[in-house]
């Protein structure tokens, strides 16, 4: 790549703190480890497996929601923000998990879901029982319908999960009544963030978990809380991504300027619990916002600490695309003095070991199922290992999703009957949805449910191929994906890569190369093997070098 090398230098973080270089591991509690054998993972299961994470060498864990919830959206429909769903355990299990994690030097981030509650939340029950215009209704977004009988939704917005973003209620007197907004499932009514009562409630929820010792919050749909006041129609198809280009209007439901006031207030609350490099409590935005400069507004010095870099996650596997997104991301966050946050997989997207096995240029799939074009598993894993090794060498913070350290692919042949993601139902099956990345992970090749729990039960079926990915098949095996991750995390720490400075090196068009922290990193995207400079000492490689000591296709090496 011709990288104008002299101009490209970026640090990935101006104000150092533990979070600016942390590697944070996402745990999806339903699918991590099941202590009680009911087929659904739980908090005691996580606690019992914390040693795995300490051995792996991550700095922190982020727990997807474990709060009381009817599970209409796998826990992102919260009925009570101050408790634990019985499926997952008790509040004392949460306290124990936090304490045990800390005892192993792992920080703990919990998920906060402020855009919407569950329809089972007491506030929504009160809203349904109350009259139009009442204080109870004003905690949500209720409106009269359009048309003579109010039988048409108040505007044309669509739900991210498919279908209309409005549902009509039956008034207490039995007549068809108002409509409420839900950008996601109808069991997830959107809150009205213009209401001071809503703001006060969430400050209190923050304090509740901060008092229990958490180190921060991952903020769900952080770009959605404020809607354009007139709720204007939006003729475009609905996507969670703001998709906003400089010359295009911004969707009225995403990335409104008003959201930033909320995060400024929260930042003050968090800072009152600790703001130093060691004890800072952090906010990380799940904000599907483009371009990078617009996303960077969420991480200005008095707002959040991090924002997931989805533009990076979505970038094509080519040298120019990766160069462009890395450069843009570093520049945008450097401009506001925040760390860049790298991520390749999470519970909402096709796992990168499968995504990268699809032909380059395939649009982002929303799940893969039987009958869909299948990824090439070998190519996918090979590229995933190369991509991860590239990512872990970049300055800034990185997020890992449970199972990726095993090279786990998406379950791409999950029968439709077992799918639980509301996306599948609400799109009439047009989108397979996200179940394939949420299948319980394998720990032991020969145990029931591959060691997920003590029984065969698993809330989504695990494919037979899971045995070969099990942790006990990979631990101590040179070249395994697990050992690749573990080795890379150790070297990343030793060389201070997370707080280092990236300097691009001149390289052929299908190669990316840069230095950071005394190491040189090289990724070969091209068809031909690439030689290393004479005397190069390879310290980590995503694939073996060829007989001539060259870097093969779809491989990354770190060398001195
Ligand atoms: C976020 C979550 C996703 C959830 C949605 C609605 O995008 O990551 O899993 O379905 O918000 O809460």
TrEMBL record:
Q: Tell me which positions the record assigns to the signal sequence.
A: none
Specify the Glycosyl hydrolase family 13 catalytic domain's residue ranges.
Answer: 26-438
Query: GO molecular function terms here?
Result: alpha-amylase activity
The record's Pfam families line, in alphabetical order, gives:
Alpha-amylase (PF00128)
Entry keyword set:
Glycoprotein
Which GO BP terms apply?
oligosaccharide catabolic process
Compositional bias, Basic and acidic residues, is annotated for 413-424
Q: Where is this region: Disordered?
A: 413-436
The entry's family comment says:
Belongs to the glycosyl hydrolase 13 family.
**Name of the protein in its database record:** Alpha-amylase
Organism, per UniProt?
Answer: Micromonospora rosaria
């Amino acid at each position: 790549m011709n990288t104008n090398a002299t101009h490209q230098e970026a640090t990935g973080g101006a104000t150092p703190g533990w979070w600016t270089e942390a590697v944070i591991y996402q745990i999806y509690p339903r699918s991590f480890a099941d202590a009680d054998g009911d087929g659904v993972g739980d908090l005691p299961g996580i606690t019992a497996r914390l040693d795995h994470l300490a051995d792996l060498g991550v700095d922190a864990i982020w727990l997807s929601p474990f709060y009381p919830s009817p599970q209409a959206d796998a826990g992102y429909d919260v009925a009570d923000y101050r408790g634990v769903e019985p499926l997952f355990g008790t509040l004392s299990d949460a306290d124990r998990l936090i304490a045990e994690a800390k005892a192993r030097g792992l920080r703990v981030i919990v998920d906060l879901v402020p855009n919407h509650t569950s329809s089972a939340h007491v506030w929504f029950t009160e809203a349904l029982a109350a009259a139009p215009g009442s204080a109870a209704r004003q905690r949500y977004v209720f409106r009269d319908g359009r048309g003579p009988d109010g039988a048409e939704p108040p505007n044309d917005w669509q739900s991210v999960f498919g279908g209309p973003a409005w549902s009509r209620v039956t008034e207490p007197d039995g007549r068809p009544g108002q409509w409420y907004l839900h950008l996601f499932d109808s069991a997830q009514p959107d809150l009205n963030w213009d209401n001071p009562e809503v703001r006060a409630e969430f400050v209190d929820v923050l304090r509740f978990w901060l008092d229990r010792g958490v180190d921060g919050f991952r903020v769900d749909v952080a770009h959605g809380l404020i809607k354009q006041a007139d709720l204007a129609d939006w003729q475009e198809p609905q996507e969670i991504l703001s998709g906003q280009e400089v010359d295009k209007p911004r969707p009225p439901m995403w990335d409104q300027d008003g959201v930033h006031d909320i995060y400024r207030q929260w930042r003050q609350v968090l800072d009152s619990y600790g703001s130093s490099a060691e004890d800072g409590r952090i906010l990380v935005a799940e904000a599907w916002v483009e371009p990078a400069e617009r996303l960077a507004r969420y991480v200005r010095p008095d707002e959040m600490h991090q924002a997931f870099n989805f533009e990076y996650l979505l970038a094509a596997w080519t040298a120019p695309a990766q160069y462009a997104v890395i450069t843009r991301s570093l520049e945008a966050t450097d401009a506001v003095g925040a760390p860049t946050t790298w991520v390749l997989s999470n519970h909402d997207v096709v796992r990168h070991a499968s995504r990268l096995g699809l032909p380059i240029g395939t649009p982002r799939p929303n799940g893969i199922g039987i009958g869909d074009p299948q990824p090439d598993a070998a190519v996918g894993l090979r590229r995933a290992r190369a991509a991860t090794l590239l990512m872990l060498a970049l300055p800034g913070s990185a997020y890992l999703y449970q199972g990726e350290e095993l090279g786990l692919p998406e379950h791409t042949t999950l029968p439709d009957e077992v799918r639980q993601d509301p996306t599948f139902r609400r799109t009439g099956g047009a989108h397979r949805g996200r179940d394939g990345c949420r299948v319980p992970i394998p720990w032991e090749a020969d145990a029931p449910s591959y060691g997920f729990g003590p029984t065969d039960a698993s809330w989504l079926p695990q494919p037979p191929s899971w045995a070969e990915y099990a942790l006990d098949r990979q631990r101590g095996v040179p070249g395994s994906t697990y050992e690749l991750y573990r080795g890379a995390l150790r070297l990343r720490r030793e060389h201070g890569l997370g707080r280092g400075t990236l300097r691009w090196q001149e390289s052929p068009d299908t190669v990316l190369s840069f230095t950071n922290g005394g190491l040189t990193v090289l990724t070969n995207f091209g068809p031909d093997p690439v030689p290393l400079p004479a005397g190069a000492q390879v310290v980590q490689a995503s694939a073996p070098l060829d007989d001539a000591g060259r870097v093969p296709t779809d491989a990354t090496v770190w060398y001195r």
